[in-house]
Amino acid sequence: MKPEKHDKLPHDKTPLQAVIFDVDGTLADTERDGHRIAFNRAFDEFGLDWHWSPEVYGELLAVTGGKERIRHYAKTHAPELLDRVDIDTWVARLHQMKSEIYSGLILAGAMPLRPGVSRLIHELREAGMRIAIATTTTPSSLRSLIMVNFKHEMMTLFEVIGAGDVVAKKKPAPDIYQWVLRQMNLPPEACLAIEDSQPGLLAARAAGLPTLVTVSPYTAGQNFDGALSVLSDLGEANAPAHHIAGMPLAGKCVDLTQLRAWHGQRAATSQATKT
Ligand code: XBP
Ligand code: MG
After folding, report:
1. For the whole prediction, is pTM greater than 0.70?
2. In this structure, which residue's CA is closest to atom 10 in ligand 1?
3. What residue ranges do the domains of the chain occupy?
4. Which of 28, 75, 126, 203 is in the most buried spot, having the most CB atoms within 10 Å?
């Protein structure tokens, strides 16, 4: 049946129906003291003399995905490795080792959630808002982070988990967000993404999602043009978030009322960023 003209609301009238969270840098500051440490320990286990300092790791974050990051580093630091006939298996085994070490660190309590994350997720769930994950991280690493911080299996907390190799192209490609939207059967304009990095913002925007950015230590200086708003974090009543760019934060912290308000005004932001 041909859809009636009024079946589809204009973009700026579509109500907010789901919030899609990034993981690393957004839910928790996992990179420098989590993933980086795990990569370095796995390199030791594999007899490699590689060591990723906090500075080097910051540069390597431009390559999203752990296996992709390892392969990229090998290209410049040990190109002979790439000639191995079993290179794909070797990278996968090294990354598997890294992921196990990472989960061990997380389960030992090394990585608390960022300010406001637990509060907002609980508020969204209580309000019946649909919530999902869109990340380049490996599912086992995410599961550990969720288990230790929420005492929940990830699938009971989030309706849809888009993670790791479920899509071929990782952020900044839009694929992971498009995959999540398909699973949720929602158009992008009915959703809002929360990200911490430029590759994440680019991925979400390329999928058509209005996006809030909460910067993390590695991403604070990046270009966030096109974001609804850019903040220090989600904030708590006793530890207010700081506004950095984009639409202002009305109160001390991000709550559902604020997300709905930004979402409702998103047409103004996309106009503003086009000029
Ligand atoms: C950030 C990433 C990930 C992590 C490492 O993901 O690029 O690759 O650095 O995780 P996001 P893996 O911000 O999208 O959550 O080693 O499991 O890939
Ligand atoms: Mg991130």
Report:
1. yes
2. 137
3. 11-29+112-274, 31-107
4. 203
Measured from the Cα of 196, ligand 1's closest atom is 13
Q: What separation in Å is there between the alpha carbon of 146 and the centre of ligand 1? A: 15
The conformational region for residue 205 under phi > 0 = left, psi -120 to 50 = alpha, else beta, is alpha
Q: Counting atoms of ligand 1 from 1, which one is nearest the CA of 95?
A: 16
Helix (H) or strand (E) holding 214: strand 211-214
% of the chain with per-residue pLDDT over 90: 88
pLDDT digits (tens, 9 = 90+) for 105-121: 999 987 999 999 999 99
What pLDDT does 155 receive?
A: 82
Pick the CATH number of 31-107 from 3.40.630.30, 1.10.150.240, 3.30.70.3270, 1.20.120.530: 1.10.150.240
Secondary structure of residue 115 in the 3-state scheme: coil
At residue 128, does pLDDT exceed 60?
yes
d(CA 129, CA 209): 16
Structure tokens that stand for 22 in this block:
């990034």
Is the sign of the CA dihedral 37, 40, 42, 45 positive or negative?
negative
